[in-house]
Predict the 3D structure of the following.
Amino acid sequence: MPHVFEIVAKDGAGRVGKLHTSHGVVETPAFVPVINPHLPVVSLDDLKKLGFDLFITNAYLIYKDEKLRELVLRKGIHGAFNWDKAIMTDSGAFQLMVYGDVEVSNLEIIDFQSKIGVDIGVILDIPIYKGSIDYRKRFIDETIRRAKEAYEAGYVTEDSKTIWVGPIHGVPYPSLLEYSVEHMTKYPFSMYAVGSIVPLMESYQLIQLIKSAVIVKSRLPTNYPVHLFGAGHPAMFALFVLVGFDTFDSAAYALYAKDNRYLTPYGTYHLKELRYFPCDCPICTTYTPQELLSMDSMHRQHLLAMHNLYVAQAEIRRIKQAIHEGTLWQLVAKRASSHPEIARAYKWLLDKRNLRAYNLFEELEPAFKNRGLMITRDEELYLPVVRRYRDRIFERILIWSDKVIISTPEGSNDLPSLLGAQVLIINPVFYIIPREIRNAYPLFQHMSPYTGINENALEFVRKFIEYLMEKGVEEIYVYDTREDNARKIAEKLGVSEIYEGQDVGILSQEKEELLRVKAFLRYQFGPGAEDVIEKAEIEYSPSTGRPRKIFAADITQEEIENVIIPEIEKHVEKRKKLGKPVPEDPFKEMFIEKGRIWLLAAIAPTYFKLVPHPLLAYRMWKKFRDELRYTVVVNKEAEPFVRAGRTIFSKFIIELDDNIRANDEVFVLNEEKDLIAYGRAIISAREMRDFKRGAAIENRWGFRER
Ligand SMILES: [Zn+2]
């Protein structure tokens, strides 16, 4: 079963996904509770009530218990447990660690898992917790040998019904982890897992695990779901998901309950410490801490375990919501404030010198998000979207004047809007913001506690000034509403003149709108995209005053034939179908009488980006079809479906631009390089290459064959 996973939404390296098992779909990220087959602290009915679609139990413990073994072999594991959803089993690796040896061979336990019909099974790997690199490598080699054995014996195959998990070991050594990934991916596992982490968890060395995760996720193809063995506390879940774990199992909910410990997403309490329950679950709204303490211990343990599971599930829902709205980094920041080790890992991920993490997130972080950026901590000045902006702005700024005014934020509101000089705003987060694109993501509606101009911003602006001069800018001024402040900043930047109303020329309204559109196009689609329009009209929202729609006023005869008439035809047909009145001469009414303008793009009120309409797609295609800028090519098989407006699936994509990131607007061509559709990327280029299952692009518009 090699292709069992697809992505629905993503943020950071985390994803909301669908894991397809023989017993239904498991939505990920998922917390997978460990069920002890002998002494379950909660019943499987309880798990169902709590909304779990998957639990994990131990195949080795079942195997060793003669009565239980006989039962599961006879009824299958689902029948024996009376559970119709997915079941994962571990192979005994944990017992191997605790007792040093297990009385079962690799092939025996694989065969057993296969016979009893588990949905997700694990080969008998060897956890490693100590020793030199050479010593550890020998155990990794043995796990690899067992993977090969499982493959050669016909268990781990392309079409096995079981999802076999390939365990990756070597934490925390990069060379070992890379070695393990390289060799384990030679066999057709459909899922991978990171193991040997229990000692790190117990000694709270979370940072080692996160560093290891970044190495594994950088090397492992993105289309595999990745499991984490023995991941403890709900406070860490958001961090695990951020670095790309899709499922994680733990018995902590039950073990903690045994010790009268009460989990929250921000830490743990002993029941004795609680006067009140800070939770709304059915347990916490029915009992008080004192009532729980006076119960018999079995009953108390059960109720505490139930509460702990409610908390875990609620945190998973919070994480999934955060991924959909693009606020996963912020959720992790919240959790970071509850434990220094989470804070340390979070800080490490955003350390500007940390290229490994930077490269991983650069490939996987979406290009646009639903929400304005909210910055609350210093390390967030290096969030991937912020760094990406600073890296790109050199190339993507439209320089349209040889005169530049560098202004403070206060100053920029004060400067007239039609100045013939280009206004660049100094900003404590992004360092420099060209005024024309301040409504674009991530600039628009971003918030931070920083005011004024910091040293990092000054250094960046000095570099930017050098760049502007290389590009032919001749006059540079500094402006602030307070003249003395402007002089101070000018001095720090090495600029000799402040702006005091010198004649820099005045733009016409028309020219100003055109420049704004061009700047936006270049910012979103890269250099050269500004050339696709020479006359524009902007429609503003009457309520907010912000640009809402962009019209082209430079329509060519060729575009009338290839875009506008077909669009009008499509429109008329749609109205007819709906039984609505149709214009007598639609071309005249919809084009000539409107002033020969046509909709080019809309500005999305949520993502703060340009959403192309057919005309922009057509112009981008004419300009960039050879270099495939923000473009994918699909095969013949998919073409009719894509033209009909259906979702574009990864497996049909045969060529693509490696710069595509989730939520970018992209263009879709057929094998002959004709434009057949455009839409929103759901995943990034790296994922489009890896995935053979699931959606890649949400289709906004399919072009009919002509
Ligand atoms: Zn509760």
In short: Residues 277, 279, 281, 283-284, 307, 310 surround zinc ion (CB under 6 Å). DSSP finds 27 helices and 28 strands in the chain.
